Structure formats: structure tokens, C-alpha cells
């Protein structure tokens, strides 16, 4: 039995994706303890196991983890400085990406391209931008526009450059180190999904917690 009083710090993540059935405490976030023996044993401690019929997504409370830790370590104080609940998801990664994977990528790219194009054209049609360009051209030159002018070409080039700058990507390279708007929205969406999963699990009584 460990006689000296030690403190084990937990810094749990909000969402964890694993490719194995057995879940260890070290899979859920960061751990720290001055006593290396306690730290090694705590990291290797089993906290959950996914069975074939279990849901592939489980919500685990930090209270359950604290109870398990104190059952194994009688004189260890547990301090949690991370999340109070962890969403654990069992995923299966396919190393061999077949043609279906490429078809999905092409389909998503097509949806993004044509959807964005339709949105831009619909906006331009609503504001009647062709008429606006004609009026601006007549105001600046005093002549009647007979088709596409320098205004249309400049606007098209500026629109393309503006999209590249806004999304902060040219090919596979970033323009700046800041996260792109899509990355920011994806993180916000991910946080909202995790919070909804935790609240739903609490309401349905499916959260793995102390009794």
C-alpha cells in the first residue's frame, strides 16, 4: 500500500476517438503525478471496454474515473483540471482507400463548387450587378457599354483573389498561420455536437457515472 499522500492530476479531453476496444486512462487525456510509479500504473489502468453490441459512442464522467482511481490507489488525491465528461468514440480506420473513397471526395468537391457558384450567381442576379456595371462604366467613361468591359474582368479576378484570401489557402499551402474560417466553424460545430451528446446522455441516463 502507498503510504505517502500523492496528487494525480487529470486533464481530460472533450472528445476521444479510438481504434481499439480497450480504453485506458491515458487514452482520455494527460496525466501528471510526481510519483512515477503511480503515474505509470494510472496510465495503464483500464476504464472502459467496447463490446460488439455496445454503442460506438460512450459518455464517461470524471466522477467514475475518480472512483476507479481511488479504488486502486487508497492514498492518492485526484485533481481534475480538464473536462468533466469525455465523449469516447470507437472508430474503424480503413487503411486501404478504395474507389468509393475517391468518389465521395469528388462528390463533396462538386457539391461545394457548384453550390458556391450557384450562390454567387443568384446573389448577382438579385442585385442586378450587370446593370450596376453598365451604369458605373457610363459614369466613368461617358460611353455606353457594348458588352463585357474592364469592370467585369477586374471584378472576376478580385472575387477569385478575395475567396483565396478569405479561405486562407492556395492549393495545399496556407497564406497565414491563422486558422481558416472553415476550420473555425468546424471547431464550433464539433464543440456543439459534443455538448449535445453529453446533455442527451445525461437526460437519457446513459452517461457512465458513479451511482
* CATH-defined superfamily of the largest domain: eubacterium ventriosum atcc domain
Number of domains: 2
Describe the strand arrangement of the main beta sheet, using strand numbers.
4-1-7
Number of strands: 10
TL;DR of this structure?
This protein has helices at 36-43, 62-72, 99-127, 129-141, 150-167, 181-204, and strands at 6-12, 15-18, 22-24, 29-32, 46-49, 57-61, 76-80, 85-90, 169-170, 173-174. It is an alpha/beta fold and 211 residues long.
Chart the SSEs and their pairings.
Elements: E1 6-12, E2 15-18, E3 22-24, E4 29-32, H1 36-43, E5 46-49, E6 57-61, H2 62-72, E7 76-80, E8 85-90, H3 99-127, H4 129-141, H5 150-167, E9 169-170, E10 173-174, H6 181-204
Parallel strand pairs: 1-7, 2-8
Antiparallel strand pairs: 1-4, 3-5, 6-8, 9-10
Features:
211 residues, 10 strands, three-stranded mixed β-sheet, alpha/beta, 49% helix, elongated, eubacterium ventriosum atcc fold, 2 domains, single chain
Amino acid at each position: 500500500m502507498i503510504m505517502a499522500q500523492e496528487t494525480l492530476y487529470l486533464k481530460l479531453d472533450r472528445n476521444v476517438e479510438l481504434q481499439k476496444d480497450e480504453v485506458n486512462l491515458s487514452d482520455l487525456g494527460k496525466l501528471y503525478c510526481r510519483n512515477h510509479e503511480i503515474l505509470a500504473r494510472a496510465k495503464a489502468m483500464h476504464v472502459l471496454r467496447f463490446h460488439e453490441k455496445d454503442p460506438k459512442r460512450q459518455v464517461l464522467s470524471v466522477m467514475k474515473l475518480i472512483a476507479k482511481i481511488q479504488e486502486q490507489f487508497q492514498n492518492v488525491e485526484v485533481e481534475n483540471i480538464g473536462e468533466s465528461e469525455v465523449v469516447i468514440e470507437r472508430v474503424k480506420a480503413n487503411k486501404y482507400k478504395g474507389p468509393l473513397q475517391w468518389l465521395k471526395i469528388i462528390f463533396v468537391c462538386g457539391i461545394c463548387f457548384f453550390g458556391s457558384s450557384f450562390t454567387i450567381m443568384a446573389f448577382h442576379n438579385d442585385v442586378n450587378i450587370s446593370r450596376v456595371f453598365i451604369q458605373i462604366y457610363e459614369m466613368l467613361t461617358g460611353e455606353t457599354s457594348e458588352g463585357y468591359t474592364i469592370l467585369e474582368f477586374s471584378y472576376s479576378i478580385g472575387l477569385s483573389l478575395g475567396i483565396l484570401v478569405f479561405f486562407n489557402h492556395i492549393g495545399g499551402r496556407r497564406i497565414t498561420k491563422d486558422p481558416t474560417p472553415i476550420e473555425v466553424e468546424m471547431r464550433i460545430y464539433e464543440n456543439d455536437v459534443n455538448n449535445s451528446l453529453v446533455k442527451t446522455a445525461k437526460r437519457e441516463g446513459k452517461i457512465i457515472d458513479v451511482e
